[in-house]
Structures are given as structure tokens and as C-alpha cells.
Amino acid sequence: MDSKRTIIKIVKGAVQAEEVVDTLTHPAHGGQACFFGAVRNLNHGRDVLAVSYECHTSLAMTVLEEIVNEARIKWGDELVAVVIHGTEKLNVGEISVGIGVSTPHRDEAFEACRYIIEQLKVRAPIWKQEHYIDGDSEWLKGHELCRHSKHTTEKSL
Amino acid sequence: MKTTQITLFGKLRKWAPQGLIEVATQSEMNPQLLREVVARELSKRNPDFMGLSELLSSAVANESRVLREDELIGDSKEFFLLPPVCGG
Question: Which of residues 68-97 of A touch B (CB under 8 A)?
Fold first, then answer.
């Protein structure tokens, strides 16, 4: 992969938006799209104070590179992408994930940016634990990375 | 038999607070058998173990990829158990 056209990072703490935006300038690109995911203060009716993010870093880097490569195949080899995900405990309002895509025209930038965040959410080995205002905390449900027979395994235990 | 280090993530950490356990494995095991070994170890450590559902929905991975369910774990001595993911 051309490192000049792809930046993928797993960082400690929150994502700094400028790091995503500042990387996207390209003289031949007229479309730049960014997505930022932030910790919100309410989820399923519960008041959220913070969210802790945990990550299998080496695998996450590999998966995110695969996703960006797929985006490049779909929307053009000239695509520039920045993907930065935060880890550890983030407070409400802090940015947990930043995605930036630069392409010659806007349609590809919007679509590729959307593709990368949607794929990240179901494929990247990242987990989040919400911390609530009442002192409780809970790991959020997610998407399985494997397909296997639970029935068979449960029977054999 | 060999000793294999298993790193647990997310909700699974509840049953091994350090996030690490060691289990005895064989190269001929597939991911399902590895999960069963881990389930037995976690049950031994936690008489009130209630994490079977999370464990069975977890993928087995190495440093760089998720193992297919039909492949053998081979000689590697380090694996990662990945419960359902929810990044972003």
C-alpha cells in the first residue's frame, strides 16, 4: 500500500479532527469528505458519562487497510484515505473515530467515506464499554466476526 | 500438548480481569475446540461463569487475521478471542 495515500492510526485518547482534515489536501482532488464519530451523552435511554474503547491493534490495522483497499477498488485508485480510531476512556463530546477521504470528485468521496465507517463498525476488532451517570457500565453488543454452530459447541461442553 | 496464551477482549475480560489466560492446547484443534478449552478454564476460575454465550460468539484470531472455523490452530502459542465488535 502507498503510505502517502493511506494513513491509518490507532491512538491513545481522543482523535484530533485537525489530524484528519489536514492530511487530505491534494492538488488534483476537488472532493473531500470527513466523518467524525463522537461520544454522545445518551444511549438507549441511559445517561452516558464516557465510553472506554479497547482494540486488538495489529489486527485492526490490517482490517482497516483491507477496507481502504476495497474502497480504492470501488471508487478509484487515486483515493486518499485517513482513518484514525481512539482508544481508552473518552468523555462525552470527544471524537472516537475520524475518517477522511479525498477524491477528484465529491460523489466518490461521500460514498467511500460512508463505506469505510460502515465496514469499520462491523469488521474492526474494537469494543466499547459505556459508563453511565449512575455508576454502572456495560460492554455494548456488536457484530460477530465468525460464523459457527453455537448449538454444536454448547452441546459438546 | 502445548501451553497457549489467550488474550480476551471486551466483555470476556470480566472472567479473567488481566485479560490473559493460559490453556493447554494441541495443534490439531480448530477454533471451536479452542473455545471449549477456554470455556473450561474460565469455568474453573469462575464457579459462577456466565460468559458462555459471549465466548461462543467470539472469533479466534492471531496477530494479523481471524482464523477460519475449519482451520487448525497449528503451532502458534498466542491467540486472541474477539467477541462481537462495535467500533466507531
Answer: 85, 96-97
